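Please check these two lines:
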Amino acid sequence: MTKRLGKDFYENKTLKVAQNLLGKFLVRKIGNRVIAAKIIETEAYCGPKDRASHASRGRTERTKIMFGPAGQAYVYLIYGMYYCLNVVTEKDGYPAAVLIRALEYSKADGPGKLCRELKIDKKLNAVNLTKNDKLWLEDRGEVIKPSQIERSPRIGVDYAGEWKDKPWRFVIKSN
């Protein structure tokens, strides 16, 4: 049974969404080609106090998507060369998102590689993942049990003080 994830999925607490995304499929349509790959790693960014989150600096032109409704794509450029894909979570006005870090796909073992391989860039920033035909997420019936999830600190956020040690990175253990 394949089902596109709806807004109600994304409106949950960010840490829950980050774990529940494991085992779901990221689907990208490029022309007539459809690529679908299982999500195997995520990171949660929870609200304006999370110093590792872009939202901790307030609402800006870049971060306004994080403050919007759940279920939107938040795509941004890092290091001037790599795009990263996040899904906005929780309620409208509360800035939170989940970074999709890796897929079970040969060349998508990091957020930048994932976006490069699936041709995800700023053109997809702010798309509604629940309704568009270029990028969406699906539940294909795979259940990931809590015992199959490994938690660890997020990667690349050493600047975030005590927030760098939050165990908000989630990986399917077998991957």
In short: The chain has three helices and nine strands. The two ends are 23 Å apart (CA to CA).
